[in-house]
Amino acid sequence: MYSETPLEPPFTAPRARFASLWLFVMCALLLPALLPGSAAQAQVLRQMEVERVTNNRAFVFQDYPGYAAVYIESSIPNLSIASNLDIIADLSDPASGVYRVIILPRPQALYFRAPGYMEARMSTGVLNARQVIELRIDPQDRSITDTGDLLIRSEPSSATFTVEGLPGTYSTPHSFTNIIAQTYNIRVELPDHETKHVIVRVDPLRPTVRDVVLTPTFGFLNLNTPNATLFLATDEVPEYRVTYTPNRSIRLDTGTYSYRISRPNYEDETGRFTIEPGRTSMLEVSLRPTYGFLVVNTPDAQLFLRNTAGGDERLQPYQRQQPVQIDAGTYSFRVQRNFFQPVSGNITIRPGETSFLAPELSPDFATLRVRANAPNFQLRATDSNAPATNNSSEINLERGLRTVVVSAQGYADLSLRVNARPGERIDTTVVLESLAARQDRQRREQLPRGILNVSTDMPDAEIFINGERRGQGEISISVVPDSYEIEVRHPHLARQKSRVTVGSAAVVEQNLVLLPSKGQAVLLSALLPGTGHLYTNRNRGYFYLAGAAAAAGFTVWARFDYLAAGERYENAQLRYQQASSLEDAARYRADVLKEFGNQSTAYDNMMLGLAVFGGVYAVQMLDVLILRPRSGYRDSRQTVQAGFGPQGASLTLRF
Fold first, then answer.
1. pTM of whole model > 0.85?
2. Count of alpha carbons within 13 Å of 616, Cβ hemisphere only?
3. Which pLDDT tens digit goes with each residue over 59-70?
């Protein structure tokens, strides 16, 4: 019902209503004493009779135009009204027995409660805005006299509870027998659990059992990160430290937490999680280390590191091929080792990863390898402290000019001067003089010396005596009586060697001819094209040799092709002669003509190869006959020289 007038208080109830109320109250107080056995168990609750009234009363919703209203007249004191949705406003005046509440304009359930009375309920049905429900609530004349049994249980057990109308506090599970069959409000409590309010209706016909599941106000957290520290915080509580054991549950109050997990040498991990009632939350955190590992593969060296972000250079101990824990970052490194050149650079250590450092240290010394004619010889350096080697025929020398002594039992020591350069490997061969040979040489040095005359046909040729350069073109030297090796070298001619023996007070002449012989060059070119030019140190001999070989090879191939083509031609001609039809004869005739052409081509190729070979042969022969080599040919004149010496007459022939 709608009206344009504002909400008004109800009219005052008549005096008879107050008399009835007094009577009901007195009955409620005296009835428990009159009922046998009931006072020790429960207070008798009277029932309320809710009656819907229809009249023409209308209200104006000035302050709540979009809501509905409930208007109640009741003689029951301290009446309270509740809804399963919400009470928007309570405008009641309990002293006058008039109750007015503003509710949502939707279907809902209304609950009416008063001390000493059983709870009453009703459904509003469909409601519209500005609609008013008018009710009258009066106590019923009769009281509840039926009894029943009630069992209260909880999960978990051992909870305490109170029952409205029953004295004392009870613990679950608990049974009541022969209590008034009515509706009871029960409050169940258990530490660390939410308090539950339940309403139980005792059935007089069968035992009533009510199970109450209590919701805990805590949950559990399981953290699997070892050796770390856990810090928690909520919106109300600042950060605090929590002690925990990995993979064991931590009991926490329900709610949302911010966490921080800290561990030395690892980055802090932060986040949020929610603890739900009675449930275990799993927190799986993999902390990222703030360090990495470095493996150095250089033996017997020192490693120096300096963080590029700042700091001083420090010595980093390490064992070869063993990982070393280092804070993550970029470092300048320096690897040094005695008698080796240091290596420096940059290396980045990434968190949780292994970096490898294997610099190749270049030796700061040279290595001398010696071959000698004496067994079990030894090497020693008089002015070098370079590291030793595992090979007795090798010795390491510090950079610079060094002296190495080669010694062997039964041989005279030999000193070598070596210019050692870092990283250089020097190979040399030495001939140690036996002690007996030295004594013999010293004896011969007491004898009269001899004269060794060496000459060559090239004035600019270098002359070497026992590997030592002694002059050019022609030399004459005084030597100790001994055997000598003579070598003549020229940049454009082949080397010539000879060994002579010079006696005491003797004169020995040795002429070494370097220039080639023209006759020998012509003979070689005639036998194999190009070899005469190679004999005279002319590189175009390779061209003549390659051209002649190619022409000869082509000619041989053409010859075999010519023979094969001739055989195919004869077979084709035979098939043509034996043809049994004109069609076969025409086909075989075409084959004969084809094979004849192939044979002619092969013959032409063979002639071409012979012509090219002949041309190369002729040109290189003319070249070797007409053109002289750079240094010319050997003089063809013959010279006869005679002389007398301490050992008798000597005769020298030069051609």
1. no
2. 22
3. 547 788 889 999
